[in-house]
Amino acid sequence: MQVAQVIELLDSPKAAQAWLANLGVTETATAFRSLLALNEAGMTIDLVSVTLTQLEQILPTLVQPEQVLHALAHFISVSRNPISLGALWERDTEALVTLLTIFSASQHLSQLLIDEPECYDLLRITDGQRVDRGIILDEILNEIVSVSGDAAVKRQLQRILHREWLRIAYGDLVRKQNPDTVLEQTSYLYEGLLAAAFQVAVSSTAAANDSSLTDQFAVIALGDLAANQMCYGDTVKIMMLYDGPRVPTANSENSGFADVLNKVLAKTLALLTTSTGEPLFKVDVSFPLSNNNSSPAINLNAAVRYLDFSGRTWQRCALIGARPCVGNAELGAEFLRRINKWIYRRYLSRADMTGLRSQKRRLYRADQTASVALDMQTTPGATADIVAVIQFIQLLNGAAFTNIRVAGTIHAIEALHHNELLTAEEQNALRDSYLTLKHIQHRLQVITDSNATALPQNSKHLQHLASSLGYTDDEQNDRLINDVRHAVTLSRKILNRLLDDSFVDQEPDTPSEMDIVLDPHPSDQRLNEVLGKHNFRNVQLAHQYLTDLATERISFLSTRRCRHFLALIAPQLLEAIAQTPNPDSTLANLCAVSESLGGKGVLWELFQLNPPTLQLYVQLCSTSPYLTGILTSYPGMIDELMDSLILDQLPNKESLQNILSELTKSVSLGGSPLIDVLQTFKHAQHLRVGVRDILGKDSLSAAHQSLSDIMDVCLEEVAGDNYEQLVSKYGIPTIESGSHAGQTAAFLMLAIGKLGGREPNFHSDAEILFLYDAAGTTVTQDRDHRIKPTSNHHFFNELAKRILKAVTRSGPHGRLFEMNSKLRATTPTGSLAVEISEFVNFLGSDKAKVSHFLRLCNSRVVYQSSDATNSSKSLISQIHQTIISMPRKKNWQQDIYNLRIESEQGAAEHNLKRYFGGTMDVETIVQMLQLKHAPQHREILQVGTLAAMQQLADQGCLSREDAEALSQSYTFLREIEAGLRLMDTSARHDLPKDPLVLTTLASLLGYESPQALVTICRRFRQDNRRRFNAILKAV
Fold this sequence. Notes:
Blueprint: H1 3-11, H2 13-22, H3 28-39, H4 45-58, H5 65-78, H6 82-91, H7 93-105, H8 107-115, H9 119-126, H10 133-145, H11 150-173, H12 179-205, E1 217-222, H13 223-227, E2 236-242, H14 257-271, E3 283-284, E4 297-299, H15 300-310, H16 313-318, E5 323-327, H17 329-343, H18 350-365, H19 383-397, H20 409-418, H21 424-448, H22 459-468, H23 476-500, H24 512-518, H25 524-530, H26 539-549, H27 559-578, H28 583-597, H29 600-609, H30 611-623, H31 625-633, H32 638-646, H33 653-663, H34 665-668, H35 674-695, H36 700-730, E6 732-733, E7 747-751, H37 753-756, E8 768-772, E9 778-779, H38 792-808, E10 833-835, H39 836-844, H40 850-856, E11 860-864, H41 871-884, H42 892-903, H43 919-933, H44 945-954, H45 960-983, H46 995-1005, H47 1010-1034
Parallel strand pairs: 2-3, 2-4, 8-10
Antiparallel strand pairs: 1-2, 1-5, 6-9, 7-8, 7-11
């Protein structure tokens, strides 16, 4: 183009726009302004003419020519010498083609050149040639150590990134380098920047005179960085290990060495960010090497131990090809050597096979997650699938073929072919597909300056990508799409065939629940699909609980084994949980209980061998907070749980005494305090009774009798221990007069109420009256001057106080039992412990009320310090005689009726004990009939409501029909009460109002619906009150 023509174009917008239109420019007005800017950028008119002449040849071959012209004008204006730039283009016509090719490819690359115009000369000098890893790393490090200050380091790192990016892009776009070379150069660049940032961070963190910190840790590269297959927008994946500190650091005195390294890592990541806070490239340090993932820096030995005990199959795959990249290379190599046998196991355990098969199924399921857009990374058959399957085959065969243990997908494909694990056709197809998809992904990310991996949906953007990749005809978009689809389809067919051949044995249909346990990162869709059908409201939290259940917290137990057995029982476990009223709560409780027990793998193995134990465990965690609370408070109680399943009977009193005798030996040897031992014993036995109650193995009366025996032996132990302590202090209490003068005075604990009737529930109070034989003083036989004699009255009242204090002392696990400290044998203001004669005289006096006799219908001796005087039998005989000879004043039955009605005051309408038709209706009927008919039928003075009711019916004091109805009703209401105690509700005797709690109670008691439970309860209570009124009216 002549100079005159250039002047004419610049002077005539119309002519210029026509000229531009002929070159393929659509936005001619914008492009004309760029021409004017180019002319005014500083070049002479003849050099402008040379430039426009070349543009006539180049612009029609480029996409987005308007963008190219604008960038060219801007670049010339910021260059140091526009004239020499034009002269260069005049001498070397390829120089302008190179520049315009970069401008056309990416606005981001254009801006990088405009910001750093000197890079243009560097591009021409280097010509985009491949540079060795060592050279790149050394150059970057030398440039970084020459600057000081974090801000300056950040700027320099960013400049190096931009400069090298232009070099790599030049080789890709202009010199058409092989895709694997482009990926390799990108990996070297990221590794060099990472190493330089670490060097600066170490220098600023370590002591001024300490250069050894770098030798005490190693950074291991994973994934694409380790394989040197990084795309522009890929994430750098690393992990940090240490084996020290061998040499103290500046901060190691104040914090752990891991904390020092965490500071180094944090400083490194901070340096790899721009002034606006954006990362130069993404760095992922989340590879799990511990159960809690609390620290990115992990001790080498701890990491090896974690992988050996808890490592997953996907972690074994991910560590294939890992390599040291920063720090002490020997330390990193040592770690990789130590885990090599873990990765490539020659002999696979059941847990290994389960994990491998699960990994295989996950790879198969990728077909079901295909998106609409073609994605070079995640579409089935794309790079992620190729990498995963190739690693999977390496994992399966690496023990037998050591030369396939190589890093990088391309190298691995070649090694697998060399060992005849891939055919030549499979090798070529997979290699070509992988490199094609990686090349397209890399070019897409360069053009868009993003981490995009899917083909653009916008046709204009897709055309730009296609043109950049060399597609030039009118159907370039369709051809690009077809090529990508062909690559992923072909590779997917091959991958599926390889997976089919990965196991020679046929797998049965595997429940999806197994894979949910084995999959560390299932998609939300997958979680909703699998866990949603089991009625979980929060599927993400449910999966986290399952992950916790699959993890052993005890370091020497194998998490892999635990996860394996949990996966085997997962379908049955989740199905059982789904049947509970609140699956989310059940799973949370199950997780908490299992965590406290430890050794979860053994538990899951037991459940696999004995499915009924699984059902029990789920029901326990669903409906019995009281029992699960025992398990979490006393982790060793798992043995008691197993005993309750193995032993097909409730413990009797003799066996309980033997067990407690063994436990209390530790007290005499200076071990745990007695009350703590008793707490443990009580809870262990409650667990046994409660579990059998849930299973429905025993009658209500048998369960109550066992609970009564547990209370008895505990009270006996407390009383006996405190009695011995007082004897050592005061001497032995003796009787001073009468037929038993000189004999030891016995101390008796008379149980009344539920304990007296041998029908307590898990939380019943211990209602005790304290009595002793007779007055006297304490004596000593060994003439110990430290013993100070005292009266029997003082001795036994002190003993009663000590028993009350010990039993009701509030400790970490609550009180042993509740006891009413105001309860007295005689008057409310009387002594805590009284003589038996005083007690009997009181009952025969006018001061005794009918209420005193009612409570004595359920009375028995639970402890006697000495049997020398046969006080226990004598006391019960005297009590019975006082009941028989009780003064029955006029309207005494009306007094009993009034007492029952008064007890309803303040009770809620849902109260199953005190309110209308509650258990007190039945108990009042029985006790009133005992008082009425005792003179004629002494044998009806039986303890226990149900036993007494049977005697009343046998003696004709209560009709058979009434006895059967009342017994059935009483049993039903007490069973509900037992259920409420297992659920540990705050209102011990109230039918729950909360629908969920009521549903849980119905489930625990075996009712199909809470409405059925409420209906039956209402019917029984109405019937109780009707019979109560009828019987007392008849009396």
